[in-house]
Amino acid sequence: MTYCEMYELALKNLAPREHGSGFSSGSVSAVMEGANGRYYCGVNLDLYCGLGFCAERSAAAAMVTDGETVIRRVVCVGENKKLWTPCGSCREFLSLLSPQNAETEFLVELEGEKTVRLRDLLPLPWQERSL
Ligand SMILES: [Zn+2]
Q1: Which of 16, 50, 77, 114 has its CA 20 to 30 A from that of 22?
Q2: What is the pTM of this model?
């Protein structure tokens, strides 16, 4: 799947909804390519008590459920159809799924398919350090 196709799939899944019970979803949509060559989709879940999670982690949960932890590429779009880079929490979360995810590419500009790698977004990820 090309980046353009991943972007179109992310747009297709973009579906902002108010669920009427202190919960909304779908204002952000992510498509993730696993190292197994499969694609995983996710949307944000926002609960009004402050809980919830981002589209990237939603897609990652589907990927891990399928037995994959290594991510090749990610495309994430918001309601304005613009590309989003991952928040700090997602950067850490995705980096901890596999050390190989330092090489994960995030699409930042559709024109020319400009990407940035996770290692550049998170140059010093969490890890235990010796004394
Ligand atoms: Zn996030």
Answers
A1: 77
A2: 0.93
